[in-house]
Amino acid sequence: YESIGIDTVLMSVNDVIAQGAMPVVYTDEVAAGDSKWFQDEKRARDLAKGFYTVCKMVGMALPAGESPSLRYLIKAEPPIKNAPSLSGCVTGIIAPSSRLITGQKLQVGDRIIGVTSSGLHANGISLVIKRALALPEKFLTKLPNDNRLGDEALIPTRSYVALVKALLEAEVHIHTFLPGTGSGVSKVAFDERPLTYRIHTWVEVPPLFRFMRELGVSLKDSLTTFNWGIGYYIFVPDYEVGRTIQIGQQAGYELVEIGQVEEGKRQVIFEPENITISPPGE
């Protein structure tokens, strides 16, 4: 549950920093369908440790939280008997105000830089659970890299706070920050304008995602569900590519120029797999 706590906080943190804000306060909510869920002291300590780990890492205060028992609202699906709903709120500060990133500067010719993920990043977990429960060994199933499926699924989400902070402090001209969560690679086409996003290069695909393909998950479903190895996208003008990658690497991240923004229909052309992906929600 420590890893789950880390995931919970970073889902909010990595979204907030996409606006150019630095996180300063986090408040959590752990809601369960039955008050018995809260009686496991080790689980509670591990979850709280996960929250605290991220707060300490990125410099946030953790002043309060809420832990309601919502019997009629939160019901686990068998074979799970009891499970919580984990959520939270991050307050960020944009200072100076000139650091605000809205995405409005996105334009044709922008380069797309991908920053590697650590693994699942809590997105697509329902699909992973469904596939895992159908296996004889379930979450104890060994992957080709000798790790257990459950261990791979619990690799903590990566924080991109240090990366965003370094780029902002260096005054790199950022047109868009985009968290690689929700809708997989199709999220690259987040802007509603008629723009084509051509992906010509990709990174190594994490073992868990490759294993999902072996279990029969289609390529399209994989690319629109999992982050597929990229946890954060940065859109910059051509002249900022080299500086962005250098600063990111100095901050401890792996960055790769993976594509560009072009005129055309709103879609993602994923050349590494020769497939075209529709925008999120289509």
TrEMBL record:
GO biological process, one term: 'de novo' IMP biosynthetic process
Record Pfam families: AIRS (PF00586), AIRS_C (PF02769)
Transmembrane segments: none
Domain PurM-like N-terminal: 2-93
Root EC class: ligase
Gene3D superfamilies from the UniProt entry: PurM-like C-terminal domain, PurM-like, N-terminal domain
Domain PurM-like C-terminal: residue ranges: 107-269
SUPFAM superfamilies according to UniProt: PurM C-terminal domain-like, PurM N-terminal domain-like
Reaction equation(s) it catalyzes: 2-formamido-N(1)-(5-O-phospho-beta-D-ribosyl)acetamidine + ATP = 5-amino-1-(5-phospho-beta-D-ribosyl)imidazole + ADP + phosphate + H(+)
InterPro entries documented for this protein: PurM-like_C_dom, PurM-like_C_sf, PurM-like_N, PurM-like_N_sf, PurM_cligase
EC numbers, comma separated: 6.3.3.1
MF terms in GO: ATP binding; phosphoribosylamine-glycine ligase activity; phosphoribosylformylglycinamidine cyclo-ligase activity
Domain of life: Bacteria
Entry annotated with the keyword Transferase: no
Entry GO CC: cytosol
Pathways per UniProt: Purine metabolism; IMP biosynthesis via de novo pathway; 5-amino-1-(5-phospho-D-ribosyl)imidazole from N(2)-formyl-N(1)-(5-phospho-D-ribosyl)glycinamide: step 2/2
Keyword set, alphabetical order: ATP-binding, Ligase, Nucleotide-binding
Family stated for the protein in its record: Belongs to the AIR synthase family.
Protein name: Phosphoribosylformylglycinamidine cyclo-ligase
Lineage start: Bacteria, Candidatus Aerophobota
